[in-house]
Amino acid sequence: MTKSIYTDYFFDEPAYNTHDGGYVPLEEPTTPEQPLRIPPLLKPDKETATDTYYTVEAQAGETQLLPGKKTKTWGYNGSLLGQTIVFAKGKTMHIDLKNSLPELTTFHWHGLNVPGPYTDGGCHAPVYPGKTRHIDFKVDQPAATLWLHAHPCPSTAEQVWHGLAGLALVTDDVEAKLPFPRHYGVDDIPLVLQDRRFHEDNQWDYDADYDPDGVQGPTAMINGTINPYFDVTTQRLRLRILDGANRREWRLHFSDDLPFTQVASDGGVLPSPVEFTHLMLTCAERAEIIVDFGKIQPGKTVTLYSDDVPLVRFRVHDFAADDVTLPEHLVDIPDPEVTPDTPVRKVVMSGMDEAVMMDGKKFEMQRIDARQKVGNVELWDITNTNDMDGGMVHPFHMHGTQFRVLSRNGHEPYANEHGLKDTVGVNPGETVRIKVWFEHTGVYMYHCHIIEHEDGGMMAQIEAYDPDNPKTYKLMDMDTLMNAIAEERGIDVKDLRLAGMSSYEKMGMKM
Ligand SMILES: [Cu+2]
């Protein structure tokens, strides 16, 4: 039987951000090629058979991105992005979250199933400058590529733009037995896809580039590298791709339409491998793909593109033959039962620019918008009311759980949406039905992952509760955070300008 190879991007093409007035197309860099930066693995402070201890430090620094002046950047355990953190399933993590930045931040574990809202690290868990917050949690989910990013409302977008985004890899025994490349840095490499605009002296200027529909730059930055190449020394290469951009979708394909195989999505390994020549990722989505260079002559270069702009050049060297056929079935995906009386929750993402809303409201930190009992299954119908003309694909993200995608406007989901997901792109005019269940109690945010839409209020929060164990939460309020940031910046709070604020002000709303 010949397997089908998907050759289109699935998503509604007229809604690609190329069609939006504020879109900034990528441009090919003119600077010399650089070796692709591979984020180092974060060394545990201490490790036992059952427990791992880490320190994650948010810090400011400078990074040589372009020839000439270094760029002022932020990162975790480094000047830009982060060191890659490994979470072995079944072990208990003990993490010191240290803030060495001049401003408050939070440490959000995107995709990690942990209690909310403090361990999860959303807006209710600020760490003030010079302070350390400690979290502990047991890793209890399948192997997956997750990420850590800042999430302090409403300056999530600006802090991620500064560089606060790192990778966290969950490992387990199931994935370890599959015939995937897994030699980190050699044949198993992350690709964090971002874009930036360089201003005078090679600096970033978030305010100058601000757009309420998402900040973009014309220059692709991959793992914090401009114009990268990678030396391929194995027949098969596993790429853990993260759309870490504030707004940009990536329409990925290789030179000569080299096919590749997706083996994992946001929440882990797919039930079956899916073959592509073209793959689109929306903000915060992950795809693990395996590229087979078996038919490429050593000495040749295979280029990964988004649209027609080169992102990474893979320089193929000699390699040992490694002809592996992946099994048809990779893993079983949890699939809780749905009955005729399973509740259906409606969620609506509406508006563009400053008018973005979730269920007709803007985010309010102390308002709990929904409640769902831990362990219960609900169907969520996520609707994007934008129209095709000026609308966008809104990537819908939930904290604290991984969900299943059931349908798109009543039709089958895309071929690579049969695994666990925490982010799903919703086309204009579309309703995506997902199946949601929580394993931990907590207050969790759900929002559009175009980060400026999230800061601008396209966000709400749900309490996952246990009726036998009711809890109360100390939820942050915006005045406390704004006063703190103003004080850190040495200005009066009346003069404080944060990116998402204009979206509330223009709608005559208080943050
Ligand atoms: Cu959006």
UniProtKB/TrEMBL annotation:
Domain of life from the UniProt record: Bacteria
Pfam families to which the protein is assigned, alphabetical: Cu-oxidase_2 (PF07731), Cu-oxidase_3 (PF07732)
PROSITE patterns recorded: MULTICOPPER_OXIDASE1, MULTICOPPER_OXIDASE2
Plastocyanin-like domain segment(s): 59-173, 338-464
A single MF term (Gene Ontology): copper ion binding
Keyword set, alphabetical order: Metal-binding, Oxidoreductase
InterPro entries: Cu-oxidase-like_N (IPR011707), Cu-oxidase_C (IPR011706), Cu-oxidase_fam (IPR045087), Cu_oxidase_CS (IPR033138), Cu_oxidase_Cu_BS (IPR002355), Cupredoxin (IPR008972)
Family: Belongs to the multicopper oxidase family.
Name of the protein in its database record: Multicopper oxidase
Annotated source species: Levilactobacillus paucivorans
